[in-house]
Amino acid sequence: MKVYVSGIGIITALGIGVEANLAALQRGQSGIGRPQYLKSLHQNELVVGEVKNSNTELTAKAGTKADKMYSRTSLLGMIAAKEAMASAQLSQQDIATTGLINGTSVGGMDISEHHYLSFKTQRFPADYEAFAGHDCGICTEAMADQLGIQGHVSTISTACSSSANAIMQAGRLIKAGLMDCVIAGGTDALSLFTLNGFNALKILDYAWCKPFDQQRSGLNLGEGAAYLVLESEKRVNARKAKVLAELVGYGNANDAYHQTASSPEGKGAYLAMKKAMEMTGQHDLTIDYVNAHGTGTHNNDLSESTALQMMFGTNMPDYSATKSFTGHTLGAAGGIEAVFSLLALMHQQKYPNLNLSQPMDILAKSPLTELKTTDPVRAVLSNSFGFGGNCTSLIFARR
Amino acid sequence: MKAYITSASAISPQHSFQEDAYLSEIKSPEQAYFSAIEPTYREYIDPKLSRRMSRIIKMSVACAKQCLQSAEVQQLGAIQPGAIQPGAIIVGTSLGCLQDTEKFLAELLENQEGLLSPTSFIQSTHNTIAGQIALTLNCPQHNFTYVQRGHSFERALEDGLLQLQEGTQQVLVGGVDEVTPTLHQVLCKAGCAGNVSEPIPAHQKPTWGEGASFFLLDNEPSPNSMARIEGFQAFYHPRLGIDELEEKLNAFLKDCDIPLTNIDAVMMGMNGYEHDDAVYFALYRRFFPGKLLLSFKNLCGEYFTASAFGYQLAARILYRQEVFEAIRVKGDHERPIKNILFYNHSQGKYHTFSLLSACQPSS
């Protein structure tokens, strides 16, 4: 059973919707800057990929009731998933048998972190309602209820590979004939929790991140959400849906090296790519573009470059890290970069890696620094690696 | 999707970890909620490593290791570390590493975003559990973490069954959650949990609990397989009427191709709160009157991955052909127990049916 992509939806620092994101990618215009809505003591010192809308605006856009408190994570998720459903032109009848698999790392932390201290110190009366939306599962539940989805509702939380795993899991369920249609992707909002966590790990670049650069010094955090509508060949044919691409490969492996650091040889990354490539073996595909995980940290880019070198050798395809546009959106990154990979296939173009001045020398080839529209794009590999050694690769191809 | 349960291991508020003392004595909560009885970790985790691990990680790693050890004993006759390498490690945890999350949150807020140690942040992510198991076992295979409230374990189990269907030989699947005083306080305020030390007669909310349960699932039976998973269905529905639920159960039984007369016992997730329990008794009266009805949450408490504890209990009942008196709610244990129908719901939204059967010809 083939697995097709029939719809996409996205919201990032580049804007709301596929069109806005595509335009920014084509212009080479980053969405990273000083945070406006994240109230952090560090907000004047560093840059992040923040969605340029307040929670009030997002609530209106998501079409939810304003009297109910939704986390920013849920709101971002609702907006992107709605766009994906609309782009796939799913009817009410289709939605009744559609599942939702969501990836997120911190769920409703953006709300609970503002109430935890008063709860702990009891200096102020704590607002218990604030914690009702804390966990990852409830973020997905809120989305499912808003979208009218029942039956298969699931959340995967594997740190920065969460939404890539959500897409992979949807692919597996469809391939096995257990599901016909799944909305899969992920969402994460900026929070003080993650900002200070990455700061404590000393892997934040306070200026604009420089993935794959010799002088790279860390990542910029970002936020956003993106979803794909994945459908079985059978269902796509039955409802004569427009197909955007095919999910031809996926692979998941564990680096089993360290809780937060990647192995220098990129074992998990290599295994994940290898598994995904092996799955496509029968298709005899050439990868024309790699949307790398490329966070801009010393460790990731070294380990990923080594793994890519092992995987492709002298036949390294064009590659770039679009986190230089959006920041590292953690649990949403796999979904967002899957959408960028699909845009590359749909528009036959490859997006640049920003802020590069002195490329690393592990790979013979440097990342793309400009939009490339001259070569055919037949298949795209998208990498997502996370804490806990979680490594996932996805491969999309033109139908 | 079917599978054999080769081995199962549980750390719970009861004596469930040591096979020879399994439910030898029934414990009641010693405080406002049920706390897990933790084993001596030294036997399972290098003390240098365990010093840095929070409770939930220690419970999970020890439980996963013991599950593999008992599979080694069963299949190879003795513990042979590393002899059984799972082809996948899949964990369901609804709330994940709460202790570390709270610790980092408190430091961050108290220090007003000042200089912080990253340790608790590093260990706060939900996938720390499956990640640490992979590290301990040096296992580079498929590694997933599901966090969907009352279906966290179910989605992990589904993934495990799918792995077997895709050709993986053996998969390690677990369900784990921990309680912290903060969580309990929030749950009480939200009306989800009760306080054991302040009972409200007739309207007592569920007693909260915690624990880790791990399973080694196999495509093939082995001479000592504990049980077989014959059928499994998990669905989310925010407002499901009893009629629709009955329809779902009918359809499930039909899918499993089992006549009602062949179901020897029913295990359900009663938690003592009338509002939550009504649906269990309604289904029991409608489908299984007179049959042996078993509970499990009176032993482990209510929590989002409590069903994992229920499964290992059901597997042991099928393997040992022994019904523990503490979980017998109704009906008598008169005949061999070949098939157990399992039904659990969480918050009336997350429903799960499964059918577990005995592997050994019952004596």
List the helices and strands of chain B in order.
EHHEHHHEHEHEEHEHEHHEEE
The number of helical runs of chain A is 14
Gyration radius of chain A, to the nearest Å?
Answer: 20 Å
Helix fraction of chain B by DSSP (H/I, runs of at least 4)? 25-40%
**Number of contiguous helices of chain B:** 11
Point out poorly predicted stretches of chain B.
none
For the biggest β-sheet of chain B, the strand order reads: 3-2-4-5-1-6-11-10-7-8-9
What key attributes describe this structure?
heterodimer; A: 399 residues; alpha/beta; eleven-stranded mixed sheet; 14 helices; globular; B: 363 residues; 11 helices; 34% helix
How would the blueprint of this fold be written?
The complex is a heterodimer of chains A (399) and B (363).
Chain A: E1 3-12, E2 15-16, H1 18-27, H2 55-62, H3 72-87, H4 92-96, E3 98-103, H5 109-112, H6 116-121, H7 136-147, E4 153-156, H8 162-175, E5 181-188, H9 192-200, E6 224-232, H10 233-238, E7 245-254, H11 267-280, E8 289-291, H12 298-312, E9 318-320, H13 323-326, H14 333-347, E10 379-385, E11 390-397
Parallel strand pairs in A: 3-4, 3-5, 8-9, 8-10
Antiparallel strand pairs in A: 1-2, 1-6, 1-7, 5-6, 7-11, 10-11
Helix pairs in contact in A: 2-3, 3-7, 8-14, 11-12
Chain B: E1 3-11, H1 47-50, H2 55-76, E2 88-92, H3 98-110, H4 119-122, H5 128-137, E3 142-146, H6 152-165, E4 170-177, H7 181-189, E5 211-218, E6 227-236, H8 242-256, E7 265-268, H9 274-287, E8 292-295, H10 297-300, H11 306-320, E9 328-330, E10 339-346, E11 350-357
Parallel strand pairs in B: 2-3, 2-4, 7-8, 7-10
Antiparallel strand pairs in B: 1-5, 1-6, 4-5, 6-11, 8-9, 10-11
Helix pairs in contact in B: 2-5
